[in-house]
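Q: Got a minute? One more chain.
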Amino acid sequence: MTTAPYAALRPAGAGAPLAPVGREELLCRLERALHTRGRALLTGPAGVGKTELALAEAGRAEARGETVLWLATLPSDREIPGASAAALVASVAATVAWPDLGISRPEAACWVFDELPGPQRTAVAMLCREAPLDAGGWDPIALRLGIAQILRTLTGRGPVLLVVDGVQHVDADSADLLRFAFHLAPPALRVVAVETPEPYGEAKEPHRPEDPHATHLWVPSEADVLLVPPLQADEIAELLIHHRLPSRMAGRIHRASGGNPRLALAVGRSLADARTPVHHAEALTLSGRARDLARQLLGAAPLAVRETLLLAALALRPSSTLVRRAGRPNAEADLAAAERAGLVSLAEDGSVTFTAGLLPSTLVHDACWAERSAGHAALAEVVDDTVEAVRHRALATDSPDEDLAAEVAAAADLARRRGNSALAAELALLAAESTPGRHGTRRIARLVDAAEEAARAARADLAMRAATDLLARDAAPSDRVRARLAVLDTAGQGLTGLDEMYVHAMEDSEGDTALRAAVQLRLAVKYVLADGDPQRSRAAAVESAALAASMGDPRTAAQALTVQARMERALGSPDAEAVLAQARGLELAERPLGIRNAAQILTIRHALFDDRLTDARDELNALLPLVQRRGSVEDAIELFATLAAIESRRGACPAALAHAGQALALTLEAGLSPGPAWYTLALAETAGGSFARAASYARRSIQASEEEGDRVFLSRSRYALGRVQLINGDVAAALETLRRVQADERAQSTVDPSMLRWHEELAEALLAQDSGDEALAVLDEVRPVAARLGRSTVLLGCDRAYALWLAAEGRTDEAVELLTRTAEAFGRAGLPLERGRALIALARVERRRRRRSAAQSALHTAASVFERAGAAPWLALASETPAGTAGETSGGGSGGEEAPAALSTLTEAELRLARLVSQGASNQEAAAKLYLSVKTVEARLTRIYQKLDVRSRAQLATALRP
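A: Always. Here it is, folded:
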């Protein structure tokens, strides 16, 4: 048994802890159950996070000043009568102190026990082995009453929370004692029991009662039993980030762990500890701690259950019927026991799904060849599908066989025609591996087919396996190139670290014009994503298009022209639309295999950049049948991400959130890098969800993009974060983030300001920091480019920022006129959120002019705009009194009262500093808070004193009062 005061489990001064990742709602339910019923039972499989949840609740109770008792049991406690009750008494002695009595812990504990009558004190002493046992043992009635009295005495001094961690290990005698004590305890005693169910029906000891509730500390009801479920894929990503582990493979880690936090962290740590970084196209490192945890979960099962589970792990579509027919007559009972243990889930039709991918992987990994072969042979005899039967026969065979390999290749073709691309990829590789060595040419051809099939199925691991096998053989240069291209096509955003593969592909494509065109196309993508060099990307795309055209390859030419058009747009070239039209013409003649990197999707994105949102949505709707009929997972992700961006921009906020959520779910399920999907969610959350969640998603996207070396989405994610920081009023952080965006975009030679609209945000952040000249310089730099390229809505964004500059210069009449025109223009352009933001800016300026009615009218109109769009965070922002910046918290406002007239002379940055100083901040503290130098704070305070005609901080505080 383990006894420890709760304070010893947490660092001193840590304060009330936050809810564990993904458990906010569950923690609220736990607190409600304790408040209404006084009891709560947390149950779920091992490693799912029950103890973490109990720790969070204990921390909150401790922060409220409650006494917390923590009782952690061990499996051996079940065999020792009274062990858990004795541990509880020991924890009282270790935990309790009465500060108002001025006595130490041992003396306090003595005081608690001295309250007991003699027989009860003697029985408790015997229980704790502090007194010799009589021949007849302790008095059971006295002991019951003694334990109950100890808890009553504790609660007499204030509320008590008792956590019993591992209630399934409580011995029968202790369970009886605690049940009685809880029955008599006052409401001030609240109890949390943490239980890991025992699924395999261990035999009962003779002295253990048969009552199903005998080992419970109370008779649980639905109201106080809380099942702790696995985490969702997005929550696993947040968990990895919280523990400073790589998050770019969050989807694959979620599949491997089944959402079990302990397993997920073990897999994440194995990736972090790998000698070389695990690439997106490689299999996850499932060794060490992760594999050991899976063995512990499986090892608790009886041998018969494990043998049944091995057959299920070997099957393609496991079911209880299939496993029974394959030689496990007790399959249903074994699988039911495994389900109770949280290893599998069983559907109504008997189909079996492992709760974590690590479990079947470990079963197969640890089984010997004879066991695996026998299992596959048995399954081959009973499956009702010819494709699956061939697969099992091939996996049951240890020696290559050409006839069998041909059958497997035919099965792969059949799976492809059925639309099961993942199975087709697996079978294509199996066909190659089943080909005898004497048929070397045929094996190489099948490896090439396998690599390309894996690329179509987005199975990066299979593509890498096929390519690795092929490159170790005496393959022709063209075959080596095709295999390498397949790996590159499945690498997603993670192109960093693949330079050697590009180099070898270029060498092997020498003299083969068609292959050289394909390699140059992949290089064009790499140069922009991994290297951040659009000019070099454009050059590679131009060469690829020319080579493909010379070989009569319209498909490759169209893809290359599409990349070229994208780069032309970024570089501000007027030829971008003409190049895109050329690519689109080739696509109409030669339909692409998918929409990723297709001219049609780029046409839609150009319409999005230009705010031709109706055109963009109509074009995208035309693509829906193509994606639904033959699109890949990556096609669907591209579709939903683009839809989310369009709906965010046009103010259809609920739809934007739904599409962004679909893009993320598909991304994580496919095991692709989540950086782009998190960026899309950051935009959608900024529009209609929560600014806090938007910032969280943006930070995640930044981390994932840094891990992948993705320059494009790194810059975009920083922009999304900086924008939210500015809106929230965290100007110093926003300025730092947006300056990094400025540096990123300049390093990438990006010219077109419509693709990432950071200029207006940076200008506003600079104005808020009292850097008007620099803000004006940013606007003066971007205006001519936007005008030359015809980016009219970019100019409107600049007008909004310029109006704020006018207001900062005291030219408020001009600012109001310009903001009014800008808001109307945004409305005509079909951009409601931008219109509402301009109206909020107008309200701020009107407030500075002391035109309260005009300010309230602007805010009311903005609120109506946001309400119609479903823009929840913006609606909350518009509902605040415009006392400061648009993103200033309500605590920094004036509470709705009219500000003193002199305050209208202060800039936003001066007003922020004045409030900080008036609240007692020193110059050094204000400088740290605002990310300024102390000299800058001193100079700004001097200007504030002059404008308000005050001479001290006390006078300043008086001047700021409404």
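A: The first strand starts at residue 2 and ends at 3.
Q: Perfect, thanks.
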